[in-house]
Amino acid sequence: MVLPVDPSAASGRNAHRGGSDFSELSRRITEAGLLRRRPLYYSVRFGVVAAALAGCVGAFVALGDSWAQLFVAVALAVVFGQLGLAAHDLAHRQVFSRRRPSEAGGLLVADLLLGMSYGWWMNKHTRHHANPNHEGKDPDVSPDILVWSRRQARKAKGLPRFVGRYQAALFFPLLTLEGLNLSFNSFRSLRSPSVKRPVLEGSLLVAHFAVYLGGILAVLSPGKALLFIAVHQVLFGIYLGSVFAPNHKGMPMIEEGTRLDFLRRQVLTSRNVRGGVLIDVFMGGLNHQIEHHLFPSMPTPALATAQNITERYCAELGVPYHQAGLVESYRMALRHLGSVGEPLRARESRHAPERS
Q1: CA dist., res. 157 & res. 159, Å (int)
Q2: Per-residue pLDDT tens for 268-309?
Q3: Could you give the CA distance from residue 194 to residue 119 in angstroms, rounded to a whole number?
Q4: Contact between residue 77 and residue 45 where contact means Cβ atoms under 8 Å apart
Q5: pLDDT, tens digit, for every residue of 141-194?
Q6: DSSP string, 198-253
Q7: For 39-68, where are the alpha helices, taking DSSP H only?
Q8: Angle at 161 between CA 157 and CA 166, to 5 degrees
Q9: Which own/partner contact pairs does 319-324 have at CB distance under 8 Å and 24+ positions apart?
C-alpha cells in the first residue's frame, strides 16, 4: 500500500497560528507538561527489571543442572525483552535529558546486559524515526529477507525472492531468530563508522557472552545448556519482534518523491495498539507509537495523555489516526506481508511446470 498524498495537506498548509501543524501540536503537548522527565517512574521500572534479572540469576544458580532451568529460560526471555525496551528509552533520552548519562546507560543495558551494540542499533533506529516506512531510507523496510512493497517484490532476488512468497506464514517463525540476528549484526557492525566506540562496545559484547555462555556451560550439562539457550533466544526474539511488529507493518509505504510534512509523515505511517496496563507493560509504551514518533524523548508514562491530545488534534486537521487491538494489528501486518508477496507467488506459478 503506497501512501496517497494530498499535496496541500502534505505541506502542512492547514497550519495553526502561522506555524506548521506540528508546531501547534508541540505547543499543546509542552503546555500540558508531558515532556518533563519522570525520574521516579524510571527508577521504579528499571529497579523492577534489575530485580527480575537478579532473581533469574539466583534461581539459575540455585537449581543447578536441572530440567527446571527451562522455566528460568522463559522468565529470562521476558527480562531480556524488558532490557531491550529500557535500552530503547535510554537511547531516546526519555530517562536522562543529557547525552552522556543516556549513552552510558545505553551501553550498560544494551551491550553488557543484552549483548546488542548500542551504537549500531542507535544509528539504525534514528534513520527509521527520520523516515518511517520510506523505501530506500528506512532500514526497517529494506528488502533484507522480507519484502515490504510490491515494487520490492518485483525486484527481489535470492533469499528475499524465495522467502517473500511465503513471508506471511514465515513471519513469526523468523522472529525466533531475531535475538541471534541482533547479536550477529552487533559484532558485524563493529567495523562500521556508525559505531563510534568499537573497542569499548566490542569489549562489552565479549564480556556479555563470556558471562552468559560461560555461566550456562558451567552449571548445565551440554544438552541442557543447548536447550536452555535455544528456549531463551527463541522466546526473546519472538517477544521483541512481537513488540515492534504492530507499529508500522501494514501501514502505508512512502515512495521516493512523496512529500509529507513531519506530522503527517509520522502519523500516517504509524499505528497505535489499544489496550490497558498489561499492553503498556508488554510493549513498554510503544503501543502509543504515533505519539512516540512525534515526540521520541517523551517519557513513557506521559504517552497515554499525549495520545488524547494528538488524536483530537488530528481530527481537527482531518489527518487519519490509526488504532487497532493487538491481535488485529498482527492480522493487518500479516495481510500486508501476504499482499506484497503476491507478485512473487504469481511469478512462481507462471514458471511452474505443467502437469499432465
Answers
A1: 6
A2: 999 999 988 999 999 999 999 999 999 999 999 999 999 999
A3: 7
A4: no
A5: 988 889 998 888 988 888 888 899 999 999 999 999 999 999 999 999 999 988
A6: HHHHHHHHHHHHHHHHHHHHHHS-HHHHHHHHHHHHHHHHHHHHHHHHHHHTTSPB
A7: 39-63
A8: 175
A9: 319/9, 319/263, 319/264, 319/267, 319/268, 320/267, 320/268, 321/267, 321/272, 321/290, 322/251, 322/270, 322/271, 322/272, 322/290, 323/271, 323/272, 323/273, 323/274, 324/246, 324/271, 324/272, 324/273, 324/274
- Which tens digits make up the pLDDT trace of 128-151? 999 999 988 999 998 888 999 888
Locate 220 and state its grid cell.
548445565
> Please, what's the b/e burial string for 280-300 (b: 16 or more CB within 10 A of its CB; e: otherwise)?
bebbbbbbbbbbbbbbbebbb
Q: Answer for the pair 80, 180: CB distance below 8 angstroms, yes or no.
A: no
Amino acid at 222: P
In sequence order, what are the residues at sequence separation of 6 or more whose Cβ sits closer than 8 angstroms to the Cβ of residue 92? 296, 297
CA distances to 15, 67, 118, 210, 263 from 317, rounded to whole Å, are 9, 58, 37, 54, 11
In a 13 Å sphere around the CA of 277, the CA atoms on its Cβ side amount to 0
Q: Is 93 left (phi over 0), alpha (psi -120 to 50) or beta?
A: left
Q: How far apart are CA 292 and CA 269, in angstroms?
A: 12
Between CA 32 and CA 302 the distance in angstroms is: 10
For the chain, first and last CA: distance in Å?
Answer: 38
Give the span between the Cα atoms of 132 and 250, in whole angstroms: 12
- For residue 186, the one-letter residue type is S
